[in-house]
Amino acid sequence: LTNKILLSANSLSPELVSIFLKGGGSLDINSVRKKPKEWIPDKGWLDMVALSQHNTFSDLLESVYRNNGLWRQWYDQEAPEEVNIPDFEEQITPFERMCLVKSLREDRTLVAAQSYIADAIGQKFVDSVPLNMEATWGESTPLVPLVCLLSPGSDPTKLIEELAKRKKIKVLGVSMGQGQETIARKFMTTATIEGQWVLLQNTHLGLAYLSEVETYLSKAEGVHAEFRLWITAEPHRLFPIGLLQMSIKITNEAPVGMRAGLRNSYAWVTQDMLDVVGRYEWRQLLFVMCFLHSTVQERRKFGPIGWNVPYEFNQSDLSACVQFLQNHLMEM
Length: 332
Description:
Number of domains: 3
Distance between the termini: 54 Å
Radius of gyration: 26 Å
Oligomer: single chain
Strand order of the largest sheet: 2-3-4-1-5
Number of strands: 5
Number of helices: 16
C-alpha cells in the first residue's frame, strides 16, 4: 500500500521496486564480478549487483571493495537499519535503505520495512491497535449484527463475554454445527424479546442457517433495544453477502512481536482488575503473566521448533491464568 501511494505520487522509482522484489535471483554468482571477501553471502552479493544497476547505487560495488572494513562492521551490527551506511548515508531514502538491508541482512528486512512505512505514511500504520470491543459495540444496533472474522491465535469469545458482564447483559451462546440450528432459533427468539445477546460461534460450520438469520433480521420488528447478535466465523466464500453487507465486520488478528503482544494484553487489563486483589504482589505478577503470554505467543512463529504440539495460546488462556493467579493470592 505504501509503495502504491508513493508510486502514484512519483516519489518512488518503479525500477527500484522491481529490484527490491526480484533481487539478484536471475544472476549467476560465476558470471558477475567476484565478491571482495568471503564474509559476504553469495545471495547478498547477487542482490547488491542487481542494486548497482540503479543510478543511486551505481558506485555500490566499488564502495564495498574500497571500504570493506566499514561494510563488515555495518553487516555485523545487531540492528544495521538504525546505523549509518558506509558512503551512502547522506544520499539514500528510507526505501533505498530498506533495499540495502534486504541485500546484506535479509533477517532485518521486516524491521527496516516498518521504519520505511512509518516515515512514509505515519507510525500509526505500523503500530498494532488493540481491539476495543466496547467501542465496536457502541456502533452497533439491534438489527446490525457484529461479524468477528477468526484468525489463528485469536478468539473474541472471551472479550464478548467480559463486555456483556460489564454491561450486565446475558449472553446466549451456541457453537454452530450439525443440529444446532434449533437451539440458535430458540436463542434468537428469546433474546430479541428479553434484550439479551446471542453469540453464534464458528458459523462457517453452519452457513445454511446464516441465510435464515439474514432474512430474520431484515424482517424483524419490535426488537428489544438491548438485543445484539454476535457472529464468529472463519473467512468463507459461501458466507451470505447480504448478511456481511448489513453487519459490522471485526477482525482481531494475533499481535506480531513482543511489543504488540504486551500492548494487546495491557489494553485488556482494566482498573477494576488491578484493584481486585489488595496484595502488593498482584500487579507485579499480572505484568509477569502478560509478559509470559506474549512470549509463548511469539514462539508460535517457530512452529515445531518452538512447541512440540501446536497450540494457539489465545486470550482465553491468559484470562484463565490470571483468574487462577487471582484465586491463589486471595486464598493466601
